[in-house]
Each structure stands twice: as structure tokens, then as C-alpha cells.
Amino acid sequence: MTQQNDVLERELHIAARPETVFAFFTDPAKLIRWMGQEATLDPRPGGICLINIHGHITRGEYVEVVPYSRVVFTWGWQDEGSTPRPGESTVEISLIPAGAGTLLRLRHLGLNGEERTNHGQGWDQFLPNLVAAAEAA
């Protein structure tokens, strides 16, 4: 785990191919298997990335979508008083083939110290769900 300046980083191995893991960031039905209850996703640059996580809405736009290797989207909370606001932070997902599985690198940029702590706890809660869902797919 690395936290420097405004960047939160996580790295984990998933016993599933990058093609499988990629869908869990671009297919709403798969995304809600590991995070959130509803999602509206349009995985192309400029497309919406809207996720309802326990009644709290995160909204962003896809910035980069490279099939099976990279997904980048902006991230922020629509809830009044929550930070970061939509578009104020960015999540970068890199999927690297590793044997029969995938090395996932997550970088969440544009967070202040408190946001890094809170989002670190959130990613630490949800990423194990992603591993379980992708490995069961």
C-alpha cells in the first residue's frame, strides 16, 4: 500500500484473466456484484460512470477505456457536503496479465489527506469483493 501526496494506490492479484476483470469495470451488472446496488455505465471517453453505493451516489466520466488493460474514470460524490465532488478525482485501473491471472493496479488521484483515508478504507472494503466476483465468473 502506497499513499503519496494526492495518490492512493492498491495492487492485488486476481485469479482471472484481464478480459474477465475488465468487464467488472465496464458492465453495470458485473460492477454491482462487487460495489454498489445500481450502476449506469457508458464505457467510452466522455461516457457516464454513475454508481449508487448504499444510497450515496458517485458520478464521473470515463476518460480512457483500453479493452482488457486500462480503465480511467473521474470520481466524486453527488451527496451534499461530500468530497471529492464529481470530476475532482480520478481512478486509474491497470490490468496486467500475470500467469493465468491478473495483476490489478489501482491509483486514485486528486484526494486530500482525509479523502485518501476514507477512500482507502472504501477500496479496502470493496476490492476483496471484486476478487471474489471475478474469480467466480
Overall description:
- The protein has 137 residues and is α+β, with helices and mostly antiparallel strands.
- It has one domain: Alpha-D-Glucose-1,6-Bisphosphate, Chain A, domain 4, CATH 3.30.530.
- It is built from 3 helices and 8 strands, in the order ββααββββββα.
- An 8-stranded antiparallel sheet has the order 1-2-8-7-6-5-4-3.
- The longest helix has 24 residues.
- The mean pLDDT is 95.
List key phrases describing it.
Alpha-D-Glucose-1,6-Bisphosphate, Chain A, domain 4; alpha+beta; 137 residues; 3 helices; single chain
User: Count the helices. How many?
Assistant: 3
Q: On the 0-100 scale, what is the average pLDDT?
A: 95
How would you write the strand order of the largest sheet?
1-2-8-7-6-5-4-3
Summarize the main sheet: 8 strands, antiparallel
CATH architecture descriptor: 2-Layer Sandwich
- Name of the CATH superfamily: START domain
Strand content: 35-45%
List the helices and strands and how they pair.
Layout: E1 2-4, E2 7-14, H1 18-23, H2 28-31, E3 38-41, E4 48-53, E5 56-66, E6 70-75, E7 89-98, E8 101-109, H3 113-136
Antiparallel strand pairs: 1-2, 2-8, 3-4, 4-5, 5-6, 6-7, 7-8
In short:
By secondary structure, the protein is an alpha+beta fold.
